[in-house]
Amino acid sequence: MARKAKKIVVLGGGISGYGSAILAHQKGFDTFLSDAGTIKPLYRERLEEAGVPYEQGGHTIERILAADCVVKSPGIPDTVPIVKALREQGTPIISEMEFAYPYLGNARTICITGSNGKTTTTSLIYKILCDAGYSVALGGNIGESFAHSVAKGGYD
Asked: Model pTM?
């Protein structure tokens, strides 16, 4: 879906959102990030460095509804009015993972799920792979967002 879209709106300026916006901008999409709250200074700085337009403290509804595709941060419920409006008009709404995965290139992923021990398991696998000489990224609940790691690129 997102690969054919021209206008990408990213809803949410947290770690998932800013990483998705940077990747979308890098891939040549007309990108806009919107957050109803306040974006952390570090994320704002990175958006500005990358040249990604954004807003915080509210949404420009018309601009969001004009998107060909929306990348929604996981913390935004499907019940908020802007998400409902997007669904009603048929705008595709995807996750950071759905958006970033097609740009992974030749890199491989190791995904860890479960109730307990994810951070420890992730850290151990990361260390083992680094010690083995692989170029690896650490993401998810620790490290960077998946999309930002994909944007940075160059990982095994």
From this structure: 0.89
